[in-house]
């Protein structure tokens, strides 16, 4: 059975204030401290549209290849949620900001964009972390009124992996534009997936289910894969897939029912009476088009061509504009792009991920990392020593040469010192020596490792191995 999937990506826009009022849109404040009569829906409180939110939405639409409409209309979308105080959401319906466009994937396929529209976010229901959470639900209205764009794709996706890549590509574009921070853990980027299956390509589309508020690429893939398998099992067993909204339970690895959709929701859309039509002139669109930076697809291609990097490296190094800039600065200063890429992908990103940090938090300047790379290439220090040095650089931001000098980590190359280390290792590991002489070749590697450890990693492994062979012979 064939799967058909479409995504609805909800992206909070990076603005200082909310979409219709002056309240802060910053994340992390104490609950209900960033609210006013407008974002709480008090009668008579009039919305005023945030120009920066419109600018971000237009730039995102341009980057996605959409046609930006000169006139779009805000509408009231009526439905009840505890965290939607007005009882309706200000969104766009039949006349959205932009339509058309597509997202290009790594295999050359393209996922169409149906529409991009502006809307306000709802508040957030809290089920733990406050007094009385065991018997009640708390509501935090700080998020109410934060500006959003919703990006709706065409049902061009046929697998969980394809959906995850599409979501990732959309995130890359929004982050490169600096209109969204891409932080899925904080909820500033979320995804709903509409999933259906059918037996043959010529059959009508199957009954779809909607999986709501997925906040990671891995979960998007897993949730869709589970939902496809679940629907196929229902149909194969002679059952009927029921239209429903479901949630992804990452702990159990399953989608679970949220609410049924036996009948289409009647949101009772009508034009928002307190907001005039949104006018976006061709001149302003053209002006904003000139501000669009290099998009991740083009950056990846350029890194492959300009620096002779493998496509995998280019993919990793374009996760954010800041990471790309860091690589290019390091590559220029070191004169060795591929080695710079290896260090950044391995040693730098590994430490940042372990510390829960991003490249913006890194204390190692590109010129300092380049200096460390050159020290290894010039044999001033060994590879193992370099890893000790970068640990210190990561903590303090110091220059590598200063760390090497202060801690006496310079390379040890004189034959007399190496011979003394080898002699001690052989004396302390007579069992391994006997095993080597009995034909157990892996014992030699053990002895090399012990000698390197004894020298603090400051000796050339090749010279250590040569000295060991001479001594054993």
Low-confidence parts: none
Distance between the termini: 68 Å
Portion of residues in beta strands equals: 15-25%
What portion of residues is helical?
40-55%
Rg = 29 Å
Report the major sheet.
10 strands, mixed
Secondary structure class reads alpha+beta
Question: Helical region count?
Answer: 15
Count of spatially separate domains: 3
What is the 3D shape? elongated
Mean pLDDT: 90
Number of strands: 17
Structure, described:
It is built from 15 helices and 17 strands. With 473 residues, the chain is α+β, with helices and mostly antiparallel strands. It has three domains: 2-287, no CATH class; 297-407, no CATH class; 415-472, Arc Repressor Mutant, subunit A, CATH 1.10.10.410. The strands form four sheets. Strands 1, 2, 6, 7, 8, 11, 12, 13, 14 and 15 form a ten-stranded mixed sheet that branches. A three-stranded antiparallel sheet has the order 5-4-16, with no helix packed on it. The chain has a two-stranded antiparallel sheet with strand order 3-17. It is elongated.
């Amino acid at each position: 059975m064939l799967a058909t999937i479409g995504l609805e990506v909800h992206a909070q826009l990076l603005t200082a204030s909310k979409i219709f009022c002056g309240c802060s849109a910053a994340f992390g404040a104490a609950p209900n401290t960033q609210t006013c009569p407008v974002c709480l829906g008090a009668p008579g409180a009039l919305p005023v549209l945030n120009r920066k939110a419109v600018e971000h939405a237009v730039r995102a639409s341009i980057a996605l290849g959409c046609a930006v409409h000169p006139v779009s209309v805000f509408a009231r979308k009526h439905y009840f949620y505890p965290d939607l105080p007005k009882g309706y959401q200000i969104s766009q319906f039949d006349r959205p900001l932009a339509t058309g466009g597509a997202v290009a994937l790594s295999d050359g396929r393209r996922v169409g964009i149906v529409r991009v529209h502006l809307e306000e976010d709802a508040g957030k229901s809290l089920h733990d972390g406050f007094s009385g959470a065991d018997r009640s639900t708390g509501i935090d209205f700080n998020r109410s009124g934060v500006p959003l764009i919703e990006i709706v794709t065409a049902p061009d996706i046929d697998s969980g992996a394809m959906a995850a890549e599409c979501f990732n590509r959309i995130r890359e574009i929004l982050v490169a534009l600096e209109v969204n921070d891409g932080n899925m853990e904080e909820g500033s980027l979320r995804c709903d997936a509409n999933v259906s299956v059918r037996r043959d390509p010529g059959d009508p589309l199957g009954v779809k289910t909607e999986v709501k508020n997925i906040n990671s690429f891995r979960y998007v893939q897993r949730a869709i894969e589970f939902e496809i398998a679940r629907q196929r099992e229902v149909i194969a067993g002679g059952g009927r897939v029921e239209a429903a909204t479901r949630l992804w339970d990452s702990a159990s690895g399953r989608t679970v029912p949220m609410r049924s959709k036996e009948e289409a929701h009647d949101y009772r859309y009508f034009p928002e009476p307190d907001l005039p039509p949104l006018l976006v002139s061709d001149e302003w669109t053209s002006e904003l088009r000139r501000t669009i930076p290099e998009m991740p697809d083009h950056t990846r291609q350029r890194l492959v061509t300009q620096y002779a990097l493998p496509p995998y490296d280019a993919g990793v190094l374009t996760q954010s504009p800041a990471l790309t800039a860091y690589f290019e600065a390091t590559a220029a200063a070191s004169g060795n792009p591929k080695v710079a890429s290896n260090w950044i992908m391995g040693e730098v990103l590994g430490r940042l991920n372990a510390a829960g940090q991003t490249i913006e938090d890194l204390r190692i300047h590109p010129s300092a990392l380049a200096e460390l790379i050159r020290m290894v290439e010039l044999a001033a220090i060994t590879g193992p020593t370099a890893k000790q040095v970068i640990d210190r650089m990561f903590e303090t931001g110091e220059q590598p040469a200063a760390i090497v000098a202060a801690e006496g980590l310079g390379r040890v190359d004189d034959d007399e010192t190496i011979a003394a280390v080898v002699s001690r290792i052989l004396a302390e590991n007579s069992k391994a020596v006997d095993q080597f002489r009995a034909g157990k070749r892996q014992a030699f590697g053990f002895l090399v490792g012990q000698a390197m450890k004894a020298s603090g990693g400051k000796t050339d492994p090749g010279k250590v191995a040569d000295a060991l062979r001479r001594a054993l012979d």
